[in-house]
Design a protein that fits this description.
By secondary structure, this protein is of the alpha/beta class. The chain has twelve helices and twelve strands.
Length: about 325
């Protein structure tokens, strides 16, 4: 059987399926990584990776017979794709199958943060309703939703948001063609024109800290930040300061820089909705992602084209 190196946790249903047709080598937290690689490196023809944990250039180049890296994720910033592609190693990911669930959570956040739904539940559970009514929230109808990154997920959120009466605008570095949404030439201009700013762009080093203090200042004291993309896209210390000082009104976050660790300051804030990176966490989507990982591997080793290769990176 073909030998695969597993560098991230995968759902049991997927590992059980793979183990019937491949030999899996656990490399998630090896006690002696060099010793293990000395034994198995020449046999490894594929890597099982994830969105938050993937192979770096050193590991990729150590595996002389590596052919494919299959990532159980739509994002691939945890894998050194440039190093892989430079060696002719195929990298695959799982786009499309999780678009709907991620967009659903983003839309939920767009409603939750301005309407203060998280605060309202805590208000009731703590018994404070017995002492009087909670302060008012803000309607989203007629508000301006700015989307940073109008890819598959960004467009899916835009379609949902239109149903709720939001006006859509966006900023994207790629040409989007003829769309009914207003395009802003810069992120700062988008933030300045938005009541709610959604982060829906790719992660990676190039976008680290893209949402910085200046962007948050432009969003303004009545604005809300929504992030279901990647934690490091947001300058987290700057966000904490902006929320604390009232530079923005609130935020809803599913991803964090350094997760699963979340800053205590964010946890303590009433005007922040926090979830533990659950955007694609449904039985249906995880099963579809697993199927795609399997199908990409099976196709490759059967001599067929993979279904969802990562495009060439520069």
């Amino acid at each position: 059987m073909v030998d695969l190196l597993q560098v991230t946790q995968l759902p049991p249903f997927l590992t059980e399926r793979l183990e019937k047709e491949f030999t899996l080598h656990n490399f998630i937290d090896p006690a002696d990584p060099e010793g293990l690689l000395d034994k198995i490196a020449p046999k490894i023809r594929g890597i099982l990776a994830g969105g938050m944990k993937g192979p770096n250039a050193n590991l990729i180049n150590r595996l002389e017979n590596l052919e494919i890296i299959a990532s159980f994720s739509v994002g691939f910033d945890a894998t050194d794709v440039l190093a892989a592609q430079a060696r002719g190693v195929i990298v695959t990911h799982t786009p499309e199958v999780l678009t709907g669930d991620v967009a659903d959570l983003a839309m939920t956040f767009i409603l939750m943060a301005p309407r203060r739904i998280g605060e309202a539940e805590r208000f009731l559970r703590s018994g404070r309703w017995l002492e009087g009514r909670m302060d008012l929230g803000t309607t989203v109808r007629g508000k301006q939703l700015g989307i940073l990154g109008l890819g598959r997920i960004g467009k899916a959120v835009a379609r949902r948001a239109e149903v709720f009466g939001l006006n859509i605008s966006y900023h994207d570095i790629k040409p989007m063609g003829d769309l009914p949404y207003h395009s802003y030439p810069s992120l700062l201009e988008l933030a300045g024109a938005s009541d709610i700013l959604l982060v829906a762009c790719e992660g990676g080093a190039v976008n680290r800290g893209l949402i910085n203090g200046a962007v948050l200042t432009a969003l303004g004291p009545d604005g809300f930040l929504i992030n279901t993309a990647r934690g490091p896209i947001v300058d987290q210390p700057a966000l904490v300061v902006a929320l604390r000082d009232g530079t923005i009104a609130g935020a809803a976050l599913d991803v964090f820089d350094g997760e699963p660790t979340v800053p205590e300051e964010l946890i303590a804030m009433e005007n922040v909705v926090l979830t533990p990176h659950i955007a694609s966490s449904t039985h249906e989507t995880r099963r579809a992602m697993g199927d795609l990982v399997y199908d990409n591997l099976r196709n490759h080793f059967d001599g067929k084209p993979v279904l969802t290769p990562v495009p060439p990176q520069k």
